[in-house]
Amino acid sequence: MKKSLVGLVLAATLSAPAFANQPIQLSVPGNNLPDGNVKGFRASLLYGQTPSVTGFQLPIFGLAESQNFTGLSVGVFFGANRVTNHSTGAKFGLVNWNDNSAQGADVGFFNYNGGQFTGLQFGTVNYTARLNGVQFGFVNATDRIEKGIQIGLINYDKSGTFVSKDLPVFPIINMRF
Length: 177
Fold this sequence. Notes:
Blueprint: H1 2-19, E1 22-28, E2 31-33, E3 38-74, E4 80-98, E5 101-136, E6 139-157, E7 169-176
Parallel strand pairs: 1-3, 3-4, 4-5, 5-6
Antiparallel strand pairs: 1-2, 6-7
C-alpha cells in the first residue's frame, strides 16, 4: 500500500509540469523543454510546435508553430510564425502564417491569413480571406475587404474594387468602408 501511494505521488509530481503553464520553453524539432503551454518566453530553434503561447516568442532559423498565440513574436535568421487557430498581437518574421483569425500586426516578407484579419499586414506579399484594416505591400490580396484599405503596386479584391465590383484588381490604392 505504501509503495503504491509513493508511486502515485511521484507520478503526479513528475507529470504536473506537463499540464502547467511554462514561464520559459525551448522548442527544437520533436521536443519542447519543458512541455506544455507557455506564459512567458519561448525560443524555437529550426522547428517547434506547442499548443499555446502568451508572451514573447523568438523563432530562430525556422518555424515556430502554435494553436493560439498572444503577444510579440520576433523571428531572427529566417524565423517564421504559424498559428493554426487564433493570433492576437504582433508578429515579425520572414513568413507569418495564420490558418484562421488574427488581430494585430503581421510584418514580414510574406503574410498569409486564412480567415478574418483585423489590423495591419505589412510585407512584400499579403493575403487574407477577409480584411478589416490595412494591407501595405507590393502585392495585396483578399477575398473581401470588409472595412479597410490596400496600398501597393497590385491590389486584388475578389469581391471587386471601390471602382467597380466587376474589376477585382486596382493599382496603388483600393478600399472599402
